[in-house]
């Protein structure tokens, strides 16, 4: 049986670690060719080369998504290597070190940086990939949001607001790109055990576990299957939707 993403070209941002890394693995194992994008150059190179050693079709480009010229370079790399792009996962985000502060004390400069990377970076990366997604005839965009925007996580104002913006942008993008047979959906994970959540206090982890319908910690593998679905032909008529994957902490 043909694998779900056989002969597909997929761009994944934030691919060096965390959910982005796990999304990359599941896409590669489903048959895709993946361009990994991240600012963490050494780790990105190491992990791309490890995938290549397994015989998987991974390549990489180091890029700071707060810089429009870096996104332009990603587009140039794609144009030189691939005939089109079938899918894009916007996973890159600033999450570490942005919480634990009351809204009255939040640093405006940190707010701006979170919005620049998480929101503007998602918009500009999608904008840069649209011409290649159009060429595929059936493009897929998956924006990684967060269930923090669904329940209003306290003391995490900038991150929560940025992920709320991702939800709104997803719907607007879906309206604009539907005529080109490009689907745009968002995926909202709960608190997941990855590198970026190591700083989260134990009481917040307990809040999530105890509040879920399925009362256990959330693993990256719990989320990656939904991303694979949204990239595939199985989701060809699903667009403008947000899918929470959080064990029932928030119901849609």
TrEMBL record:
<dbReference type="GO" id="GO:0016616">
    <property type="term" value="F:oxidoreductase activity, acting on the CH-OH group of donors, NAD or NADP as acceptor"/>
</dbReference>
<comment type="similarity">
    <text>Belongs to the short-chain dehydrogenases/reductases (SDR) family.</text>
</comment>
<dbReference type="InterPro" id="IPR020904">
    <property type="entry name" value="Sc_DH/Rdtase_CS"/>
</dbReference>
<protein>
    <submittedName>
        <fullName>Short-chain dehydrogenase</fullName>
    </submittedName>
</protein>
<dbReference type="Pfam" id="PF13561">
    <property type="entry name" value="adh_short_C2"/>
</dbReference>
<keyword id="KW-0560">Oxidoreductase</keyword>
<dbReference type="InterPro" id="IPR036291">
    <property type="entry name" value="NAD(P)-bd_dom_sf"/>
</dbReference>
<dbReference type="InterPro" id="IPR002347">
    <property type="entry name" value="SDR_fam"/>
</dbReference>
């Amino acid at each position: 049986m043909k694998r779900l993403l056989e002969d597909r070209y997929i761009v994944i941002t934030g691919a060096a670690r965390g959910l982005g890394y796990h999304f990359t693995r599941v896409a590669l194992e489903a048959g895709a060719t993946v361009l990994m994008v991240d600012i963490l150059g050494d780790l990105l190179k190491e992990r791309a080369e490890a995938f290549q050693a397994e015989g998987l079709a991974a390549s990489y480009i180091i890029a700071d998504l707060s810089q429009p010229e870096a996104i332009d370079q990603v587009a140039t790399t794609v144009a030189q290597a691939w005939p089109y792009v079938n899918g894009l996962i916007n996973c890159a985000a600033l999450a570490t070190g942005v919480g634990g502060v009351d809204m009255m004390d939040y640093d405006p400069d940190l707010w701006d940086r979170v919005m620049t990377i998480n929101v503007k970076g998602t918009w500009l990366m999608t904008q840069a990939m649209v011409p290649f997604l159009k060429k595929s005839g059936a493009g897929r965009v998956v924006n990684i949001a967060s269930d923090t925007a669904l329940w209003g996580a306290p003391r995490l104002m900038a991150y929560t607001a940025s992920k709320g913006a991702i939800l709104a942008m997803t719907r607007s993008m879906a309206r604009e790109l539907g005529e080109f047979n490009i689907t745009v959906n968002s995926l909202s994970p709960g608190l997941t055990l990855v590198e970026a959540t190591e700083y989260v206090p134990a009481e917040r982890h307990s809040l999530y576990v105890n509040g879920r319908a399925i009362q256990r910690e959330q693993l990256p593998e719990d989320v990656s299957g939904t991303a694979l679905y949204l990239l595939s032909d199985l989701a060809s008529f699903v667009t403008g939707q947000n899918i929470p994957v959080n064990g029932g902490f928030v119901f849609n």
